[in-house]
Design a protein that fits this description.
- The chain has one domain.
- It is globular.
- The protein contains 3 helices and 6 strands.
- Strands 1, 2, 3, 4, 5 and 6 form a 6-stranded mixed sheet that branches.
- The protein is α+β, with helices and mostly antiparallel strands and 135 residues long.
- The longest helix has 11 residues.
- Helix 2 crosses helix 3.
Length: 135
């Protein structure tokens, strides 16, 4: 079991994404994380929280990891998203869709969040972790 903590703003799309059915805008079934020693692996249980290690800790749900892939975000003048071996996302519509599936309103919202949380990081490489809905 691997636990991930999220900002409170992501709780509603995570809870929506745990519901059965196809992934649609407004649902979050993925997270972008810095590389570290140990992330979830496909098939492992995930526990998704807000406020982990605080008094306001709340379990949003349990699910199963379905994929882990390297991801690179370029947030500057020529933005793009590279996910594993998938084609690079460079068009505005594709960037907006990627951002929406990650719980943001659009690509500019993702970029603003990134700038506030990770000042001066415009080229990020890490991992994209995806999970399934509950059946």
């Amino acid at each position: 079991m691997v636990a991930y903590s999220f900002k409170k703003r992501f709780a509603p799309p995570i809870i929506a994404g745990l519901q059965p059915g196809p992934l649609v805008v407004g649902m979050k079934r993925q997270t972008i994380r810095a590389d570290r020693k140990r992330h979830a692996r496909p098939g492992e249980e995930l526990q998704l929280y807000t406020g982990m290690r605080t008094r306001s800790c709340q379990l949003l749900g349990r699910t199963t990891c379905i994929a882990v892939a390297p991801v690179r975000l370029l947030l500057g003048r020529s933005p793009s998203v590279e996910i594993g071996g998938e084609p690079t996302i460079t068009d505005d519509a594709g960037l907006d869709l990627f951002a929406r599936f990650d719980g943001f309103a659009n690509w500019p919202d993702l970029c603003a969040f990134w700038a506030a949380e990770h000042a001066e990081v415009s080229d990020f490489s890490g991992v994209l972790i995806r999970w399934e809905s509950r059946s």
